[in-house]
Amino acid sequence: MRKLKASILGLLVLGFAATAQDASVKYAKTITPEDMRSKLTILASDEFEGRETGTEGQKKASAFLEEFYQKIGLQGPVNGTYRQKFSMYQSDWSEVYVKVKGKKKMNGVDFIFSGSANMDKEMKLSTVFIGNGDGLADMDVKDKGVMVTAFSRELLTKINEAGAKAIFRMSANDEQFMQTMPRQARRSMKSRLRFDKELGANQSMIFNITKEMGAHLLNSSVEKIDAAADNPASIKPSTIRLMVQEKLVELGTENMMAFLEGTDLKDEVLVISSHYDHIGQNEDGSVINNGADDDGSGTTGVMEIAEAFAQAAKEGNGPRRSILFLNVTGEEKGLLGSAYYADNPIFPLENTVNNLNIDMIGRVDPDHENDRDYVYAIGSEKLSSHLKIISEYANITYMGMNLDYRYDDPADKNRFYYRSDHYNFAKKGIPIIFYFNGTHADYHRPSDTVDKIEFDVMARRAQLVFHTAWILANRNDRTPVDRTDDMDYNR
């Protein structure tokens, strides 16, 4: 029955020669658990410090990839180099302060600032107490600061619509607020990375403060503040001095890539990708998130697949289409590296036939404890009806794995289709497959280490990607875009 099914599917995989089929088996066998272990042990070592974007550890990882691609003889397609360099920007709010009785209270130490602004000099801001905000409609807060004891998204909208310039949100429990201050500060002292140097037009200022600090700013007391909950007008307005100044941090980073030129269809390009960054380490370096599975495993997979194709080319079995092996940075910061490539492609996107993206292939998730020989194949039929057929054919013919499609369900709450680098290719209309082993208890934790990796499973998944890539690179016709993706790309 399996042979019959393979034959039927094979009729649809047009233009793929049996000799090429046979050759692929030889090179797939070069992808071994032992080779994967040797590469991943380096990539997910403490020496690389968790590979956070823009850090020294990420630079070490990029150098490791560069040396490897040079060694196996692949071309550097970026003006002869393997690096697509670019800069990203981040706002640092460590200089933000509010003055209390003439003394500076600093962001991250005494309060938590959220929002964005950039002042040339200290601001004097007339500020009114509005309690829980029930009486906001009857108060004039335009261009003023407002002090609130309750906060919600609805109230925030109303305050902004009323034209307030800043919000001072008093905590319900000062002791608890100060206990969580270090964790909150780590998350808010710096903005997300962005490509634009300038701040966006929508600027806002929210100061999360203790009730005690709020009372001092209003020249009042905590007891009076509590008593004025139903009568906020009993607390007189006050002038608050504050400074919000952005320290702009530029982070230089790079996507890494290697190129194998095709033969008669060399102008068409297949992209095989992973992200080589991870979430790094804590501030004092005592805890490192090595990211062995996420996505050291995928990056190792791309390296092994690249090595197999490079060997095939040296022996006269090079692919008809060109292949770009792409290891992107900034995935953990919001898919930024792949977004940069999609907007600044080295090869025209209209000539990019497919993207096979590998993000976490080294583990077995809890749903498959009794079925290790699986992989989630996400998005294979979103844009092309042919791509899933080719994927199935490659699997039935060579691997016989369980391809799990549960995450293609539009109702799936995990939304994994949005959450890795293939997404930026799909947005450009390029058919993709995202290979994924699912999440586990060590996801984004220091315990995502090499000793947890199941290398036999990882090797088989990489072999599946290799066989699929071999077919896509050698068949006569590129996979057509014959479906309209119903996913919401603005989400």
Short description:
The protein is 32% helix and 22% strand. It contains 14 helices and 16 strands.
Order of helices and strands: HHHHEEEEEEHEHHEHHEEEHEHEEHEHEH
Mean residue pLDDT: 93
Q: List the uncertain runs.
A: 487-491
Count every helix, treating DSSP H or I runs of 4 or more residues as helices: 14
Report the count of strand segments.
16
Could you name the CATH homologous superfamily of the largest domain?
Zn peptidases
Shape: elongated
The CATH architecture category of the largest domain equals 3-Layer(aba) Sandwich
Mind explaining what this structure looks like?
This protein is α/β, with parallel strands linked by helices and about 500 residues long. The protein has 2 domains: about 1-90 and about 250-475, Aminopeptidase (3-Layer(aba) Sandwich), CATH 3.40.630; about 95-245, Glucose Oxidase, domain 1. About 30% of the residues lie in helices and about 20% in strands. It is built from 14 helices and 16 strands. The protein has helices at about 1-10, 20-30, 35-45, 55-70, 155-160, 175-180, 180-190, 210-215, 220-225, 290-315, 335-345, 385-400, 420-425, 455-475; strands at about 85-90, 95-100, 105, 110-115, 125-130, 145-150, 165-170, 205-210, 240-245, 245-260, 265-275, 320-330, 350-360, 375-380, 400-405, 430-435. The strands form 2 sheets. An 8-stranded mixed beta sheet has the order 1-10-12-11-13-16-14-15, sandwiched between helices. Strands 3-2-9-5-6-7-8-4 form an 8-stranded mixed beta sheet. Strand 6 (about 145-150), helix 5 and strand 7 form a beta-alpha-beta unit. Helix 1 (about 1-10) packs antiparallel against helix 12, helix 2 runs antiparallel to helix 14 and helix 3 crosses helix 10 (about 290-315). Mean pLDDT is about 95; it is low at about 485-490.
